[in-house]
């Protein structure tokens, strides 16, 4: 777990304008910066970035957050990945309580990773330059219907038909980084190198090169395709410290914006499918990298969109690939996500289908793709004879591990009902047989927020105090415990919320600010989320801190005044019949006069 103190220090060092500005063209507009929102399609800028709040907000779609939130939403990174990415940019190292690597060794690893990344970037530039001087490769790409514009967008290149062309880029051809990055093969890796009398030689030769980028746009690997029918048709980078096939998707970096605009991502089987589909009007396509789809792939995709469509050839290989994808999807299937499977005719891949049938026909195929629930039932039924007990029992046998992999949800309940229908049993019998607890009850128990006792959002003075604290956490140092008691007395439904907020603000010390508080309250609940969204949307000029402090003092003073007046009213109604009541009334009168005389800088 990353310490909150580190998050605070990181956000104090990072400038959100610089972070967002790498991905969005921003222009100064008053106190803030404006640009086109990267999270929805718009023609007029409604996306603002506040350097004062260190926060972004879109008035069109409501997206908002800190620099960390932006990387999570825009790049599809996890929280820890986003923090590490920002930390690297400002020269910080994320602490890890479970990490026992000595600092010197960590520094050495980081230097090695940087060397590998630099090598991949230099090789990519070299291959792109070589494509311009390779008419056979250019003609091949043109023959596949690709334009120079689309080739440039994906950074396509060409590896010359030479054993060591990379010497032109790396004069020190013997450096370990070239082997570790998978760019060259050392004689110890393959006996063929020894037979040829060569110590080293380029891994990729005479191939069209497809650079593979991570979600930050860094080149981490390559796929090389032959042009003359040689074997293997595709040659991929080996696993390296930068590149793990089970975690990366080709084209995801290039497709992110298109995925948001289309509302879904299309997963295909190869590099050329992705590039060709982008050429033909489907830039929301990605591909796995010569390996089966994994749960990590699915998780990455569902961070980008709520709908994933897998496109496979209709042959037996495509069916096997679809089944592996289904297995990878099960643990991530939920009620608010849509996962579909598209099977094209055996004679077609996505590229050929669009060219022959047209974009509209392919779009229709995507809309009519088979939902996960239907594909699952279809798979377990298979060739089993459902008219016999044995056939139905086998279908249930095949379905058991799949249903157990699904998280408890309404979707799982629907699949259980479908399976029960085709196997002539009841949902209760399926749940008992498969040892499934009630999915609906579990889902509700897991997701339901704590009872709110009809609690309403803060209003009036308490809302003003909460709002000021969220916007200016440093004000918490001005609130003493007596003031919190008054707030609790005046607004008992919100006393816990105010106390939690003050404690969070105080924990950040003198460097407390809005962005840091937002991250601290990331899981604070709907009340805080609505306040944060409201404050993020405020566009008025920032007030001087002393002015804000006086506003807080005024709100607290009014609340204390109201408490005094309420107690005086209660005493009056009771009749002031004894000396104790009369004495308390006089004391309250003095307290009221004292509060009236207080200045804005004094909480009394």
UniProtKB/TrEMBL annotation:
**Record has Plastid as a keyword:** no
- Zinc-finger ranges (CHC2-type): 37-61
Q: How is the cofactor bound?
A: Binds 1 zinc ion per monomer.
Q: Per its UniProt record, what InterPro entries does this chain match?
A: DNA_helicase_N/primase_C, DNA_primase_core_N_sf, DNA_primase_DnaB-bd, DNA_primase_DnaG, DNA_primase_DnaG_DnaB-bd_dom, DNA_primase_Znf_CHC2, DnaG_bac, DNAG_N
Name the SMART domains for this protein. Answer: DnaG_DnaB_bind, TOPRIM, ZnF_CHCC
Q: Which domain of life is it from?
A: Bacteria
EC number(s) for this protein?
2.7.7.101
Q: Which cofactor does it need?
A: Zn(2+)
Among PROSITE patterns, the record links this protein to:
TOPRIM
Name all Toprim domain ranges: 263-346
Catalytic function, reaction form: ssDNA + n NTP = ssDNA/pppN(pN)n-1 hybrid + (n-1) diphosphate
- What keywords were assigned to this record? DNA replication, DNA-binding, DNA-directed RNA polymerase, Magnesium, Metal-binding, Nucleotidyltransferase, Primosome, Transcription, Transferase, Zinc, Zinc-finger
**Subunit details for this protein?**
Monomer. Interacts with DnaB.
Note on domains (UniProt): Contains an N-terminal zinc-binding domain, a central core domain that contains the primase activity, and a C-terminal DnaB-binding domain.
Q: What does the record give as the function of this protein?
A: RNA polymerase that catalyzes the synthesis of short RNA molecules used as primers for DNA polymerase during DNA replication.
Q: Which family does it belong to?
A: Belongs to the DnaG primase family.
Protein's recorded name: DNA primase
According to its UniProt entry, this protein's organism is: Herbaspirillum hiltneri N3
Phylogenetic placement of the source organism: Bacteria, Pseudomonadati, Pseudomonadota, Betaproteobacteria, Burkholderiales
**What is the gene called?**
dnaG
């Amino acid at each position: 777990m990353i310490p909150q103190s580190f998050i605070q220090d990181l956000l104090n060092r990072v400038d959100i304008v610089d972070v967002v500005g790498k991905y969005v063209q921003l222009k100064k507009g008053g106190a803030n910066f404006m640009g086109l929102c990267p999270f929805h399609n718009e023609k007029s800028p409604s996306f603002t970035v506040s350097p004062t709040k260190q926060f972004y907000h879109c008035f069109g779609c409501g997206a908002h957050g800190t620099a960390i939130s932006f990387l999570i939403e825009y790049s599809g990174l996890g929280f820890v990945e986003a923090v590490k990415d920002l930390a690297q940019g400002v020269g910080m190292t994320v602490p890890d309580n479970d990490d026992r690597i000595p600092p010197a060794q960590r520094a050495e690893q980081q230097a090695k990773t940087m060397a590998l990344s630099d090598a991949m970037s230099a090789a990519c530039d070299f291959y792109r330059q070589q494509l311009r001087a390779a008419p056979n490769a250019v003609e091949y790409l043109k023959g596949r219907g690709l334009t120079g514009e689309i080739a440039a967008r994906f950074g396509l290149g060409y590896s010359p038909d030479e054993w060591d062309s990379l010497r032109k880029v790396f004069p020190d051809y013997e450096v370990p980084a070239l082997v570790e990055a998978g760019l060259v093969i050392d004689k110890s890796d393959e006996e063929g190198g020894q037979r040829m009398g060569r110590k080293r030689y380029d891994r990729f030769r005479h191939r069209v090169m497809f650079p593979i980028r991570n979600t930050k746009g860094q080149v981490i690997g390559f796929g090389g395709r032959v042009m003359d029918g040689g074997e293997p048709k595709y040659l991929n980078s080996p696993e390296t410290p930068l590149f793990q096939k089970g975690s990366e998707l080709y084209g995801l970096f290039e497709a992110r914006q298109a995925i948001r605009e289309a509302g879904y991502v299309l997963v295909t089987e190869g590099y050329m499918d992705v590039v060709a589909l982008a050429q033909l009007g489907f830039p929301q396509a990605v591909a796995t990298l010569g390996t089966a789809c994994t749960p990590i792939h699915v998780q990455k995709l569902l961070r980008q969109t709520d709908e994933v469509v897998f496109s496979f050839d209709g042959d037996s290989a495509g069916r096997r690939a679809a089944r592996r994808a289904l297995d990878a999807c099960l643990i991530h299937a939920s009620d608010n996500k849509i996962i579909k499977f598209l099977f094209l005719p055996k004679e077609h891949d996505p590229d050929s289908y669009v060219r022959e049938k047209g974009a509209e026909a392919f779009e229709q195929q995507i809309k009519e793709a088979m939902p996960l629930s239907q594909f699952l039932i279809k798979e377990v039924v298979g060739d089993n004879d459902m008219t016999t007990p044995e056939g139905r029992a086998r279908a249930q046998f095949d379905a058991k591990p799949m249903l157990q992999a699904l998280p408890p949800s309404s979707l799982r309940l629907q699949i259980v009902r479908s399976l029960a229908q085709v196997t002539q049993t009841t949902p209760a019998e399926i749940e008992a047989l498969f040892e499934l607890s009630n999915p609906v009850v579990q889902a509700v128990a897991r997701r339901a927020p704590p009872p709110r006792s009809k609690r309403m959002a803060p209003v009036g003075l308490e809302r003003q105090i909460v709002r000021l604290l969220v916007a200016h956490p440093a004000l918490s140092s001005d609130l003493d415990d007596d003031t919190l008691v008054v707030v609790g007395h005046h607004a008992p439904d919100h006393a816990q919320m105010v106390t939690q907020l003050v404690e969070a603000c105080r924990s950040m010390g003198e460097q407390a600010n809005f962005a840091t508080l937002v991250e601290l309250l990331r899981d604070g609940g709907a009340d805080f989320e609505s306040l944060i969204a409201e404050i993020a949307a405020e566009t008025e000029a920032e007030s001087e801190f002393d002015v804000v402090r006086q506003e807080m003092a005024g709100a607290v003073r009014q609340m204390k005044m109201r408490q005094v007046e309420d107690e005086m009213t209660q005493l009056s109604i009771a009749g002031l019949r004894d000396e104790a009541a009369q004495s308390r009334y006089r004391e309250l009168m003095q307290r009221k006069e004292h509060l009236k005389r207080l200045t804005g800088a004094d909480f009394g």
